[in-house]
Amino acid sequence: MGLGEQKLRAGIGLSGRLVASVLSIGFIAISAAGWTGSGAAAAQGFSWFNFGSGNDGPSYTSNRADPDFVREWEANPPKGYATLAKANIEATKMAVRQYTMIIGKGGWPQIPEPPPKTPRDSLMQYGTTDPAVALLRARLAASGDLRSGNTTSNYFDNDLEKALQRFQASNGLTPTGIADKRTIAALNVPADVRLKQLKVNLVRLQEAIPTTSKRYVVVNIPAAQIEAVQNGAIVARYAGVVGKPERPTPLLRTPITDLNFNPMWRLPPTVVSEDLIPRGREMQKKGQNVLVKFGIDAYAGGKKVDPQSINWEKVSPGTYTYSQQPGKENPLGFLKINFDSAHSVYMHDTPSDRIFGRNFRSESSGCIRVHNIENLAAWLLADQQGWNADRIAQLKEKGQRLDVRLKKPVQLLFVYISAWATEDGVVQFRRDIYQKDGIGEVAASY
Hints:
The protein is of the alpha+beta class. Helices cover 29% and strands 18% of the residues. It has twelve helices and 15 strands. The chain has an eight-stranded mixed β-barrel. A four-stranded antiparallel beta sheet has the order 5-8-6-7. Helix 4 packs antiparallel against helix 8. It is globular and about 75 Å long. The two termini are 34 Å apart.
């Protein structure tokens, strides 16, 4: 079947039974008009998961693991509910009670993991018949994701696919409806561990939510997402890239003060000590110069240093300061968002946006990369005369250097919320990427 025929059959922008069948299964839906995504997922008219009313809505036949859908879903997440909404405190308390009851009933079964390098057609998905499918049914029924259909059948049917998509979406996974290795690892996090996470994160919510203002930006580190929030409702949600476990993004609460368009990059201490100097030594052995290759300038006492005069074997952190001019190689891209931080972190664009289409995005040195950052900039500058999306687009196109101070600083929070519930009753979990929840690696390894 050709792509054109697939589109005609689906009556939407992509082939098939994609995840649209899940999107009207019960939460309180936010209209698709509120989501600015484009491409595969946006063609479906996706908004946010509508899980709780029992309305199953349309079901499309699809290519479930379509890579375009996966990239689109991850890079342009639907709005959803604000992570720091006041209603989430009571909702999370209810989730604690719910999971206490689940544990009282014996929790849920473990699902056998597929062997390494399993062919995709051997994974559990729509049409599979296998004894493990019955275990998957029991697991999803225990957590409330499977709400209809046979709970003991070995056949992977449409009801089970919808239930698995529900689970994936509320656990920070792309809702493909395929029980791949990562999904099974998430399914196998024990119920008592999830309860501990809910209790730990309830305290975090109770501490963070009262501090929010009417207009704020929040980075939820475990979710690797950024929310622009006004009057308690999300204006936009952005995919982000957060710090690696060995270079974690810090927690903070501080105002956003200014924006640098087409900025110069001043290399932070961590990058200098852990990246630049080791790379300089490595390249020097090959007769190459790291500063020349990447267009980086070194300074000593405020004066520019000849890059060829530097012996990297004798360089230590603090010997020089380093900066990189705006351009295609500059890792800040065309925009840097500034705020006070003792950790020398900031939010910024990136010249390569492919990473935003991945599910796991803990890859930075502590700073936050923001997808579609120009939209966030337009929102931050909305109250300042002479600023709009067109002007920002022109700055990006022309590469013009410009620093802009916000007349009204906007509150910024970096938080670590890995388990919470929203007012629609849906319980959300994310990877405990920095293992802050006191539960070990079990919820950090998928």
